[in-house]
Design a protein that fits this description.
- By secondary structure, the protein is an alpha/beta fold.
- The protein has one domain: Ribonucleoside hydrolase-like (Inosine-uridine Nucleoside N-ribohydrolase, Chain A, Alpha-Beta Complex).
- Strands 3-2-1-4-5-6-11-9-10 form a 9-stranded mixed sheet, sandwiched between helices. The protein has a two-stranded antiparallel ribbon with strand order 7-8.
- Strand 1, helix 1 and strand 2 form a beta-alpha-beta unit.
Length: 285
């Protein structure tokens, strides 16, 4: 049985969003029924998603979402990886409205939608505040965001870009939330040389390399933050979780209170070998 998935992404900034989309497009158990983009220049982000979907031979509905955070200043105004689409003169227009797509689809499939969020939570926080019945209609939600364990907890990027929206999501009545924060995502990384070698062995990842070339102009490593968060939907043994409640402070710092009655499972350990084995099995198939 395929799992119905909606992806909410800030694709075009960090390269892991594009890799995550390639993974979902490749997974035989993933019924990707729509994509929404979020944060600065969401239309350009939607074009990147559209390009990868086309190269995968898939016609996935894509909807540019909110460009500005609910509260505060935009930290992510531009889309560096759009440079590749400018070079090949790729243009795309999008019809439909992200809010109505999310609301109507979740209501059409109550208890069936797995929502994967790998960017700031602006779209989803807005959705939940306007229609507070929607969270309980989701089957589950998978989030890349936050940092929860240890003494020196960093403020993670996705949460810090819109802490108010993140608070709205974590305080909602979703039945099941699974969160992968920096505690685990930073343990799954790969260097530029190995990335280029392995990605050239996969048709869809060859397309991702066009955008990775821009990423590699300023760094020589890829951390698989977003892909890890998505992968636990399909391979539950990749991470170990603690159940409880997540809270978000004003500047974006996240905290976790362990509680068996809580609705949120936060990853505290990852099997990196299993993750990479699973990932490359999927994208090379």
């Amino acid at each position: 049985m395929k799992k119905k998935v909606i992806l909410d992404t800030d694709i075009g900034s960090d390269i892991d969003d594009a890799i995550c989309l390639a993974y979902l497009l490749s997974h035989p158990q993933c019924d990707l029924i729509g994509i929404t983009t979020v944060t600065g220049e969401p239309e350009k982000r939607a074009m990147i998603a559209s390009y990868l979907c086309e190269k995968a031979g898939r016609n996935i509905p894509i909807f540019p979402g909110m460009a500005e955070p609910i509260v505060g200043q935009q930290k992510q105004k531009f889309v560096p990886q759009y440079q590749f689409l400018e070079k090949i003169a790729y243009k795309k227009s999008f019809q439909g409205e992200w809010f109505n797509f999310l609301r109507n689809t979740i209501r059409q499939y109550p208890g069936e939608i797995n929502l994967i969020t790998i960017g700031p939570l602006t779209n989803i926080g807005t959705l939940f505040r306007i229609d507070p019945e929607l969270p309980r209609l989701l089957k589950s939600m998978y989030i890349m965001g936050g940092m929860f364990f240890g003494e020196n907890k960093k403020v993670e990027w996705n949460i810090s870009c819109d802490p108010f929206a993140a608070h709205s999501v974590f305080s909602s009545n979703i039945e099941k939330i699974f969160v992968c924060g920096l505690d685990v995502t930073t343990k799954v990384k790969m260097g530029k040389t190995e990335i280029i070698q392995k990605f050239n062995e996969s048709k869809i990842l060859k397309e991702v390399l066009h955008f990775a070339d821009i990423w590699f102009t300023k760094r020589d490593v890829v951390i698989f933050h977003d892909i890890l968060a998505a992968s636990v939907l399909f391979e539950g043994n990749i991470c170990k979780f603690k159940k409880g409640k997540v809270f978000v402070e004003q500047l974006g710092q996240t905290g976790f209170i362990e509680d068996e009655k809580g609705n949120t499972c936060v990853a505290y350990d990852v099997n990196s070998h299993l993750f990479f084995s699973h990932f490359f099995d999927i994208v090379k198939s």
